[in-house]
């Protein structure tokens, strides 16, 4: 279907000249409607051609306010040309019958410019609507973000309440730690509890990822640890850590939440000064410092929550006098110098060897983070790429008896 022809309104006195001018304009596919007054033109008129003798120059301004207008004249009058410029006419054509082709080109060009102007106006209006809509969406997002931030802060406070008091000493062994989430909630977690006068149990966990979903796993871990602790009869302490890891492995797989964790679980026998432990892919591995030397606790195990029917190792180590046992989440590797993982692990070994307190190791990292783990997360400190936790157990020395 052909597009409708643009309608040109011709304002002139009736007669042979107007008819001839209409024929001149109508060539090349333009539709023309001739009238004596602007009010008589159809609403679909897109451009006006006004004869200077029929429409006085005083009326040109009102024409241009409504439609693009070209004035035609049979003679050139300088005064009229000045008026044409002042009122913003599209053009002023002298002897239009003689210059018919030029007149038609001017008309088509004026129509094209008018269409472009209308399209730009439409685009500006649409852009203004989109901006208004985006402002509403942005305001709504900021509101939801503020609510989410409040929820996360509340969750962080609850998570900190679940941590054990620190530092605390049980049976000659002192536990202290420093835990800083990368945002508000942490995927790192730990616990240190007395079972009876002989045994103290602890664990150190690093759940994959960080944020709300990982924090929920740490809450589940706390619940299961307390439940299993209540069920234990103090027999076979050497089997307890491995049995707990296997049970937690089943719990995470059955939950189907796609989360896994690395863990270290230990049972300290104050009577024999032995550490019964098992580990699930803990990295960095636990580092034991005593007598001026540092060593990795031996043993390897699979991560928890990835593979079914995993058996975890039953391991034992006799704790020497004045020992320090360091457990760090893998977030610490982001804070140590070194081009390779091995270089950073060696750097960590040197630091735990020379740092006799948790504060010294923390300060050696030179991080702009809260020194107090009970501080609120939204304090404007350095944003860490991962949760960072350091746990230190020390004991069996004169200072801790």
Folded structure, characterized:
- This protein is α+β, with helices and mostly antiparallel strands and 401 residues long.
- It is 37% helix and 24% strand.
- The strands form three sheets. Strands 6-7-16-15-12-13 form a six-stranded antiparallel β-sheet, covered by helices on one side. Strands 2-1-3-4-5 form a five-stranded parallel β-sheet, sandwiched between helices. A five-stranded antiparallel β-sheet has the order 8-9-10-11-14.
- A hairpin with a 4-residue loop joins strand 8 (188-194) and strand 9.
- The relative contact order is 0.09.
- The mean pLDDT is 89.
- InterPro entries: Bact_Sigma-Reg, CheY-like_superfamily, PPM-type-like_dom_sf, PPM-type_phosphatase-like_dom.
Strand content: 15-25%
Low-confidence stretches: none
What is the distance, rounded to the nearest whole angstrom, between the alpha carbons of the first and last residues?
99 Å
What's the overall average pLDDT, rounded?
Answer: 89
> What percentage of residues falls in helices of 4 or more residues?
25-40%
Question: How many helical elements?
Answer: 8
Number of strands: 16
> Radius of gyration, rounded?
42 Å
Largest sheet: 6 strands, antiparallel
Name the overall outline.
rod-shaped
In short:
The chain has 401 residues and is an alpha+beta fold.
What secondary-structure arrangement, pairings included, does this model have?
Elements: E1 7-11, H1 16-26, E2 31-35, E3 45-51, H2 60-66, E4 69-73, H3 78-87, E5 91-94, H4 100-162, E6 168-170, E7 173-180, E8 188-194, E9 199-207, H5 212-231, H6 240-255, E10 261-269, E11 274-280, E12 287-290, E13 293-296, E14 315-318, E15 323-328, H7 341-354, H8 358-364, E16 388-395
Parallel strand pairs: 1-2, 1-3, 3-4, 4-5
Antiparallel strand pairs: 6-7, 7-16, 8-9, 9-10, 10-11, 11-14, 12-13, 12-15, 15-16
